Amino acid sequence: MTYLNAERRAHGLPPLAFGAALHLGEMLWGNIGAANRLDFTRDRSRRQSRQPARRVCKPLGRTVLVSGALAAETDMPLVALGSHSLRGIAAPCEVFALPQT
Questions:
Q1: 26: closest CA among 42, 41, 40?
Q2: β-pairing verdict for 93-97 and 37-42
Q3: CA 58, CA 40: separation in Å to the nearest integer?
Q4: What is the pLDDT of residue 22?
Q5: 20/64 Cα distance (integer angstroms)
Q6: pTM of whole model > 0.70?
Q7: Distance from C-alpha of 7 to C-alpha of 65, rounded to nearest angstrom
């Protein structure tokens, strides 16, 4: 992303804002509505906050974050960023990031 934004700046374009939070776990989803109008949706609590990944990525200065649940299942080297309160989640969660190059 750093390279891409440097290229964009060189051409007078604004940088791209990007944030992704990766998690491993259960998800609630399903069809909601009536027979004449169905909506496919996921757990509402995650939709209530606009751009939830960016709300955590930006203050931590990272574009990709990894949950503790996913970190426990991978051998990829990760950097621990501590516990953070996340909107819609009762207890603070451990957050990890990819090593910066």
A1: 42
A2: unpaired
A3: 29
A4: 86
A5: 5
A6: no
A7: 24
